[in-house]
Design goal:
single chain; 148 residues; alpha+beta; 5-stranded antiparallel sheet
């Protein structure tokens, strides 16, 4: 497969990144290590909250979607980094057994005005659960190499 450069990528192009089914063990292990709030790691405490049970850390959900983004898009491109996230939302909690389906869209392209070897692409990633509810959305600007 050939590498996609800045010039090859089209604005408003949406790509299906595939899906991932969340396992309870992985979800809880991630939370124990990186986000050990009771709603993510303690079933009895989580059952008494507004969530009525364990929910995944938003960081876990974003990490799952990042993996889908790499496998379904970035690994095919001349991506050379990112400036970070401009926006990150967690709309609906993710639970063990949920299947997350992710999508990518190129919202905007801007050639660098100071370096002719690169351009900037504003990416949007959104993911839904099996009920079609948005579970995560982010907007980030990535740096892509130019072919010329």
């Amino acid at each position: 497969m050939s590498t996609l450069y800045f010039e090859d990528l089209e604005t408003d192009a949406e790509r299906d990144l595939g899906s991932y089914t969340v396992s309870r063990d992985e979800m809880v292990e991630f939370a124990r290590q990186y986000d050990p709030q009771p709603i993510h790691v303690d079933e009895s405490v989580a059952a008494e909250t507004i969530y009525d049970g364990l929910i995944a850390s938003g960081w876990y959900t974003a990490s799952v979607c990042m993996r889908l983004l790499v496998d379904g898009f970035l690994s095919e491109t001349a991506s050379i980094g990112s400036f970070g996230l401009e926006e990150l939302r967690w709309r609906t909690p993710v639970r063990a057994g949920d299947t997350i389906h992710a999508y990518h869209r190129i919202a905007e392209k801007t050639p660098s005005s100071s370096r002719d070897d690169r351009g900037y692409i504003e990416n949007e990633v959104r993911a839904e659960n099996g009920d079609g509810e948005e579970v995560v959305f982010w907007r980030a600007t990535n740096i892509f190499a130019r072919e010329s």
